[in-house]
Amino acid sequence: MLPFRLIMAEAVFPGSFDPVTHGHIDIITRAASIFDSVTVAILNHPDKVGFFTVPERMAMLEEQVREISPHVRVDCFSGLLVDYLAARKARVIIRGLRAISDYDYEVQMALMNKSLREDIETVFLVAREANSFISSSIVRQVATLGGDISKFVPKNVVQAVLNKIAVKK
Ligand code: ADP
Q: Quick check: CB of 21 below 6 Å from ligand 1?
């Protein structure tokens, strides 16, 4: 007998999204085709300064999700992810898996979240091969060194990254 029924109404896709990449957008699009609604939740880290501020990351993501589905929204949270899910009455965490290197950390987080709240499930979507080497941090590095990032992030993000680099110089 099943211990509980998983109601796949709302899924939360948490992360830093600093900035959003084509890899993230693909996962959001695929999650939106599985779940009734998807909330992309930016972790507002209390002691970590990002490349972009959380409101800047939210604005870039909002511009992208508008084109995906009206059932996708963008939010931010601080504190424990499982508490954020509980407050939203959500039970599913979406994560993208790029490579074996993601696996250890992702399984550890999924098991920790499960042990904190038994009713939560983590669902992994495997990154598309073409996106499997893209990460926000590598995109930031390449752009800072003058490389072309237009294949990895949406247009509005390319410009935002270039503007941010110019301001930081
Ligand atoms: P975090 O700091 O939580 O890892 P990220 O913004 O780097 O935040 O990633 C958020 C989620 O998106 C994670 O589940 C990550 O595995 C996934 N992700 C990141 N880049 C890609 C990609 N290129 N393809 C698929 N999933 C990705």
A: yes
